[in-house]
Amino acid sequence: MRSLTALALVLTAAPALAAPPSVMTDIPAVHALTAAVMGDLGTPDILLDKGADPHHFQLRPSQARALSEADLVLWIGPRLTPWLERAIAGVGLSGESVALLDLPGTFRRDFGDKGGHDHDHGHDHGHDHAHEAAETHDHTGLDPHAWLDPENGRVWTRAIADRLAALDPDNAATYAANAEATLAAIDAAEAETRDLLAPVGDAPIMVFHDAYGYFADHFGITVAGSIALGDAASPGAGRLADLRDQLREGGIACIFPEAQHDPAHVTAIVEGTDTRIGGLLDPSGSTMEFGPGLYPALLTGLARTIADCVAGAGG
């Protein structure tokens, strides 16, 4: 696969001249980008266990200690993981904390935005991030699932390399070279994702929760709705009935279950409709093999799962 071939260049890092920084990350996508930039110089830690839900997580004491000792913490930001904001404040972090969602150049969208994907980097929509972090995940305001736009993956890769080089200047050239290989892998994965999704066209799909806005906007797919109204919300009987009626009206090609969410809800609303049930979507990569190859594989994997179902539905 082109993306993995390009990413293999990361493993050619030059011998370390000094001990690399200790780095802590939050979700698999951020861990993957960081691991790719660090290459053979070191391995970042990750707080989320395999299969864990980033929206709801409880730190173990050993993780809290590791967090407090990190030279650099790379995370999406409090809108996704308010528990991590509290942990960073509580452990007395001695190193640097970087919320990627707040970095200049990051494309940000609000929940409910439709199209208009112009990559107006650096705008903040007037968001009060501290206020939003205190809210429950009700899917209003800033959408934090920004890693699903590969342009943000590129912005963050460069920023990660810059932060590592500032902490470890002896290895700056290696971080820069690894970042270039990572960017090439993202480019290849983006091209492959577009190819996979080309046959999908504008066929409407339904997802479990509203985590795919960046992906849908960037690649031009149509997400007609979600089962859950928020990350913390379990759909009630009334909402499931309304969704079943929507599917019975026709037009929704596929509906997709999601990692960390009960697939029974999908089965319940699809009964008696023509909508196909697709494969499991995992927007954070929590069930995938952690490591530098995860980010390109996450993009292409989502595309392949969506395309396979829509093709089977005759879309």
Automatic annotation (TrEMBL):
<protein>
    <recommendedName>
        <fullName>High-affinity zinc uptake system protein ZnuA</fullName>
    </recommendedName>
</protein>
<keyword id="KW-0406">Ion transport</keyword>
<keyword id="KW-0862">Zinc</keyword>
<dbReference type="InterPro" id="IPR050492">
    <property type="entry name" value="Bact_metal-bind_prot9"/>
</dbReference>
<keyword id="KW-0864">Zinc transport</keyword>
<keyword id="KW-0732">Signal</keyword>
<dbReference type="Pfam" id="PF01297">
    <property type="entry name" value="ZnuA"/>
</dbReference>
<dbReference type="InterPro" id="IPR006127">
    <property type="entry name" value="ZnuA-like"/>
</dbReference>
<comment type="similarity">
    <text>Belongs to the bacterial solute-binding protein 9 family.</text>
</comment>
<dbReference type="GO" id="GO:0006829">
    <property type="term" value="P:zinc ion transport"/>
</dbReference>
<feature type="region of interest" description="Disordered">
    <location>
        <begin position="112"/>
        <end position="148"/>
    </location>
</feature>
<keyword id="KW-0813">Transport</keyword>
<feature type="signal peptide">
    <location>
        <begin position="1"/>
        <end position="18"/>
    </location>
</feature>
<dbReference type="GO" id="GO:0046872">
    <property type="term" value="F:metal ion binding"/>
</dbReference>
